[in-house]
Specification:
Blueprint (H helix, E strand, L loop, with lengths): L1 H7 L2 H13 L10 H17 L6 H10 L4 H7 L3 H14 L5 H12 L10 H11 L26
Bound molecules: fe (ii) ion (2 copies).
One fe (ii) ion binds next to loops.
């Protein structure tokens, strides 16, 4: 988990995470905090094991830590956070020892984490894990949420 921890403890990541938590302090819907990132990472990891895909835990957790970090830009400028997160991730990955293919895999999953492509690769798994991470069944804002009811996690599955 070398890259995951290097990114997490970097000064830049800590600053962005703190800012994101502050910007979402009054948000009634799902927040994008460390708890969310770790839930997405853990569910993604379970799904890759179930699908018998050989993807390193370090790559999965790195993707999860970075996928929503661009929300800081989205709240401040309106720029879509999948794109903003991907740009930030590119910089963070400069300091990692992931190879070119692994970086493409991480950036691809970040860029497409809001679209269900119905495929069976890491991006598709990551999309699913992001959605599955939300405990709609106990959410106090469920009535106001714009997720279609059939997409909500109303039972425990992961
Ligand atoms: Fe997102
Ligand atoms: Fe997310």
């Amino acid at each position: 988990m070398k890259n995951t921890n290097k990114i997490f403890f970097s000064e830049k990541y800590q600053r962005l995470l703190k800012e994101l938590v502050f910007l979402e302090r009054d948000r009634i819907f799902c927040r994008h905090d460390l708890e969310h990132f770790l839930s997405v990472a853990r569910i993604s990891y379970i799904l890759t094991l179930e699908a018998e895909l050989d993807i390193s835990k370090d790559l999965i957790y790195t993707t999860a830590l970075l996928h929503d970090i661009g929300r800081v830009s989205e709240y401040k400028t309106g720029r879509e956070h999948d794109q903003a997160s991907s740009d930030l991730a590119k910089d963070f990955l400069e300091d990692s020892d992931f190879d070119e293919d692994q970086r493409d895999m991480i950036l691809g999953a970040i860029r497409s984490h809001r679209q269900d492509k119905g495929e069976d690769d890491f991006s598709a798994i990551f999309y699913k894990a992001d959605k599955l991470s939300r405990p709609c069944l106990v959410c106090p804002a469920q009535q106001k949420c714009n997720w279609p009811k059939k997409k909500m996690n109303l039972e425990i599955s992961y």
